[in-house]
Amino acid sequence: MAPFSLITASVSLLAKSFGVWSCTSSLARCTGVLPPAFVGPLRCLTSQTSGPPKRPLNGYMRYVQQQQPILTRQNPDIKTIDIIRRIAQQWRVMTPEQKQPFEEASQRAREQFKLELQGYQAQLTPAQVEQQALEKKQRMAKRKAIRKKRELTTLGKPKRPRSSFNIFMSEHFEEARGTTTQAKMKSVLDDWRNLFTHQKQVYKQLAEDDKIRYKNEIKSWEEHMVEIGREDLIREQTLSTKKKLAAQTRATKKGTNKAKAVKASAKGKSKTSRKAA
Predict the structure, then answer these.
(1) Longest dimension (CA), the chain
(2) What is the CATH number of the domain that holds 101?
(3) What are 49-107's pLDDT values in tens digits?
(4) Cβ pair 61, 87 in contact under 8 A
(5) DSSP per residue over 97-109, as a string?
(6) How many CA atoms lie within 13 A of 90 on its CB side?
(7) Same domain assignment for residues 35 and 113
(8) In a domain, 82, yes or no
């Protein structure tokens, strides 16, 4: 029977051989999928199949990453937002020479990111490419909606009218039963359903009043948007109503002019017939 040390050495040698073979085969698979330019001696891009490579940080964010831990240790009682503000102030007064190391590191990272992104995209199937394009389109639409909402808030667009239940919930949410938001909302909903008709009528009347408030405010706001040249922010239904009114006005003017022309023509014929007689 072989000594225990000899068996252990054999197992160790076998494990090392298997590890080398596994690494070599993985590298071979990488070289079979990617162009030679994307294959490095210490890196295999197939590890990115779960998602695209992350975009690199710019020079400023690299400086923030370096300085934030330092300032946090030196000032443990200062809030994170104040730390970031202090770092931003330091960055603004730095010379181009002081910023250069961070900018150069960012540039190198961008070049590496381009290579990794090309390698990642080379592995995608047509279905994955289509899915990523769809997700990007959805993200862009979401960002556009957020920017538009912020713009409308800045321009003072009136808030939409609340429903009777929303008014009831705003009044009773804080005192509702439950420790989580979801539990509180369920509690308020149960209380709303248990109200009598005459009790709900109070909130329905408040909701009707809020509709009138919104109708008056949105009308004034849209008139102001027209004055400042922002008709693109007006509701479609308002534009449709204006177009209909304009069309009716044009039709009325056209009918009036036609009637006047007919009347003038008849009057001219009458004068001609009298002269002939």
Answers:
(1) 148
(2) 1.10.30.10
(3) 468 899 999 999 999 999 999 999 999 999 999 999 999 999 999 999 999 999 999 99
(4) no
(5) HHHHHHHHHHHHH
(6) 16
(7) yes
(8) yes
